[in-house]
Amino acid sequence: MRLLLVKTSSMGDLVHNMPMIADIRQRFPDAVIDWVVEESFVEIARMNTEVARIIPVNMRRWKRNLGSCQSWREFSAFRRALESERYDAVLDTQGLLKSALISRWSRSPSHGQDRRTAREAVAGWLYTHPHDIPRNLHAVTRNRLLAAHALGYALPDTPPRYDLQLPPATLPFTPPAPYAVLLHGTARAAKLWPVEHWIAFCRELAQTHPAILLPWGNEEEHSRAQEIAAAVPDCQVLPRMTLTQLAHLLQGAGIVIGLDTGLMHLAVGLGKPVLAIFCDTEIWQAGTCPPAGAYALTVGGKGVVPTVEEAVAGLNQVLA
Fold first, then answer.
1. Angle of CA points 84, 90, 93, to nearest 5°
2. Domain with residues 2-151, CATH architecture
């Protein structure tokens, strides 16, 4: 059996796709699994060694540069890569028009959420086999359920398995031990936690973890990290790192505290103790979903900004 997965972004969504791969491998040990992924997240897909071939895509850049010959060459190469295999099934867990089009371009039987449950209803019309995947389920469960429906097995009642294996990487510094990682950045402003909350929280965290490391990915996050570190001597602003380096940093942490961000979900998938602070996301939809033997907790929720006291109480629960 040869399968194609279509889940192009974002980082957290890719991590949430990993348990589905473990389910498939459990039931079809000889299955060959390929995956279409945005170029910027290829490193994340490579962390699952069950994936045979990764097909990079960059629809956003190609759309921005429709008049560019280079864009059309890249798009043509992508289509050739997509059509070079015939798949027994294409599993699109993204549920967007762009992902549904990619599924169609594969010229293989495609499975996705139907028009009532897809994120974009039009996507449901494009699949060969649309499925009713209720929206009121956690993202991990929705992905696992789609694969179960598409391939004809019962949804497992076991905890998710992420099966992440990190490729070798050298960090640009030697981290102190033990250390905590603070993931203070996220893609949308509504998901951010106030800087003054972070500062007060870090003063409490420093009592158990005197080394608090602050990674960053852009200048806004760099400035925020410097502001937190200026107020809390135990905090250290890190140099900029690749996704693989950041994954190694998370793997070595004693605890990870983060907002609703891809790196936080990656830490959960790695089985680390995690405290997630949600300010604009439903917990039932994308809260921490740890593998067996790991512990992670989410505080806050959609339109709920947790207090420092609530976050500290959550921290103590995770540490216990």
1. 135
2. 3-Layer(aba) Sandwich (3.40)
